[in-house]
Specification:
By secondary structure, the chain is an alpha/beta fold. The protein folds into two domains: 32 residues; 92 residues, Rossmann fold (3-Layer(aba) Sandwich), CATH 3.40.50. It is 44% helix and 9% strand.
Length: 159
């Protein structure tokens, strides 16, 4: 019995040479491949402002639910901090959070993270090392002005 493995070669067999065995193998291996890919769940760390934000618990929880619905394993630093002794200083909490962040596959930054010392520290620790996504896309800088060329201003209008 021939052992089949998922490969580009198997997936690109010329249609004229496909047998029933090939078809069954391709279907079975495709399903197996999809399942294996699904099982490679990525871990995402949520970063964002905590200090001086009375709604931070809700914002982090909302982000966690959204990310989990997309299939991510989520590291929520609010939950980490809640499990630490109340005697921990900000610096000690940040050390724990940075250690957790270093285990993530990517990071997700909540709105307002730039105003947070902790989130900025987290950003600087992973910049260029991990994929970073943002709750809302970054707006275009205000200093960039786009002039619409004259030929486009009247595009599609009847003359």
């Amino acid at each position: 019995m021939q052992e089949w493995k998922y490969s580009e070669e198997l997936m690109s067999i010329d249609a004229a040479n496909v047998t029933e065995k090939h078809t069954v193998a391709v279907i079975a291996l495709t399903v197996e491949h999809i399942w294996e890919e699904k099982m490679k769940t990525k871990t995402v760390y949520i970063a964002g402002p905590v200090t001086n934000d009375p709604d931070y618990k809700w914002k982090f929880a909302r982000a966690q639910v959204r990310l989990e619905r997309k299939g991510y394993e989520v590291i929520n630093p609010v939950n980490l901090a809640a499990a630490l002794p109340s005697t921990f200083t900000w610096k000690q909490i940040m050390e724990v959070c940075l250690a957790a962040l270093s285990q993530a596959d990517e990071a997700y930054f909540l709105d307002g993270w730039e105003e947070s010392n902790g989130a900025t520290l987290e950003f600087m620790s992973i910049k260029g090392k991990l994929p970073i996504r943002y709750e809302k896309p970054k707006p275009r800088p205000d200093h960039i002005k786009i002039e619409i060329p004259d030929f486009l201003k009247n595009y599609g209008k009847d003359k």
